[in-house]
Write a structure and sequence with these properties.
6% of the residues lie in helices and 42% in strands. By secondary structure, the protein is mainly beta. Strand 23 and strand 24 form a beta hairpin. The chain is globular. The two termini are 23 Å apart.
């Protein structure tokens, strides 16, 4: 009875807030969604790089890194849920893994990223659902590339034409934005993914003098409607923040090319990290992005720091994108961020993890929570739908 009374009380409060024009998000002390993890010291330890994978048995595995002055910039934490995301348990911590993507392949779970901030390219395998992991000691055990300052994010791993594809950048001169050089890595699906010689790295494309933009990063491997692999990257365009860069990849993965006359595309929220995946049911590409709404543009001079809106977007051709629905929103631009969302399709739903800056976060970028969200019947959502709780 007590739980019923509390539920009724919350409904009454919600209705009253709607009548007086105040949103639930503006009054609630907790972030929307289900909290998986949170920082013990939001001022100097921040949640970064969320990733989620669905295991063959239907369980979820999620990960995130720690960043900030109170961290060594090389730690990743692994969690699992066996009840569709309602509850989460911590499985382990990994030192020497950062900016990483979780993915399942051939009954094993992998995590692929870098060894530390601007470290080596590394991959690990787990054969027990994420409890224990291989160690990338050398070129036969997961140490894939060395000799440069490598960069990435929890971006998609795609299987196409017998190969596994994942985008990277490096930054040899350590210039954020304009110093990144894009490239693609790929391997045969039948190869040992822990061996460096299984992987092919394309040429690296440096940033050019492409005003008014200021760099590209955090690329997505995506298969076009014509069956070609492209690398779609976030573009630093701080005015409106709505551009991405599309690069072409050869079928063997060795050649990456970019035409700046045609390669910059309109992409809502494109100046912040995003994940693009193809949905065979709708035959559309979907993404969750930090679309900058008109009502917030005057609150932040730099669109790259407008992370208080998470929107559901889609495209039939990767070049023309539609904003379907606002999923998460808070009017505080300075200290609230629903960012770096990584996600997977699950039948009619999308399940997502989000790097969330909320309440006691120092700013919108330096998140203090990892949160889980379910977007039910995502294909039917419109701008008339209310944001998620």
């Amino acid at each position: 009875m007590g739980s019923l009374r509390n539920a009724a009380k919350n409904i009454v409060i919600f209705i009253v807030l709607l009548l007086i024009g105040v949103s639930y998000a503006e009054t609630n002390e907790n972030p929307p969604g289900i909290v998986i993890d949170q920082s013990s010291s939001p001022a100097d330890i921040h949640v970064g790089c969320p990733s989620i994978a669905i295991l063959p048995d239907g369980g979820y595995v999620a990960s995130h890194s720690w960043f900030g002055p109170g961290t060594p910039y090389n730690e990743t934490v692994i969690f699992q849920s066996t009840d569709q995301g309602r509850n989460w348990q911590k499985l382990c911590e990994i030192d020497g893994q950062w900016w990483s993507t979780l993915f399942s392949h051939d009954a094993s779970l992998y995590i692929m990223g870098v060894s530390e901030r601007y470290g080596d390219v590394v991959i690990r395998r787990s054969d027990d659902g994420g409890h224990t992991w291989s160690i990338p000691k050398d070129s036969s055990s997961g140490l894939l590339l060395t000799g440069s300052r490598f960069h990435c994010a929890p971006v998609p791993v795609v299987v196409h034409n017998g190969r596994i594809w994942r985008a990277y950048e490096d930054n040899p001169d350590m210039k954020w934005g304009t110093g990144f050089r894009a490239f693609m890595m790929s391997a045969s699906i039948g190869s040992d993914l822990l061996k460096a010689d299984s992987w092919t790295a394309s040429n690296r494309i440096p940033w050019g003098a492409w005003d008014p933009y200021g760099g590209f990063l955090e690329g997505n491997a995506v298969v076009t409607p014509e069956g070609n692999v492209v690398d779609i990257l976030r573009v630093h365009e701080p005015d409106k923040g709505g551009k991405a860069a599309m690069m072409r990849v050869s079928a063997d993965g060795k050649v990456l090319s970019f035409d700046p006359e045609k390669g910059f595309i309109d992409f809502p929220g494109g100046c912040k990290k995003f994940t693009i995946r193809f949905d065979p049911a709708s035959k559309r590409y979907w993404s969750l992005t930090n679309f900058a709404q008109d009502q917030d543009r005057e609150k932040a001079v730099n669109a790259e720091r407008q992370r208080n809106t998470l929107a559901l977007t889609s495209s039939a051709d990767l070049e023309n994108w539609t904003v379907h629905s606002i999923l998460l929103y808070h009017p505080d631009v300075e200290r609230t961020g629903f960012q770096y969302a990584d996600w997977q399709f699950e039948r009619a739903d999308i399940v997502a993890v989000c790097r969330t800056a909320f309440r006691d976060a120092p700013n919108c970028h330096d998140a203090n929570y990892l949160t889980f969200h379910r977007i039910t019947d995502f294909r039917d959502r419109t701008m008339k739908n209310e944001p998620l709780d």
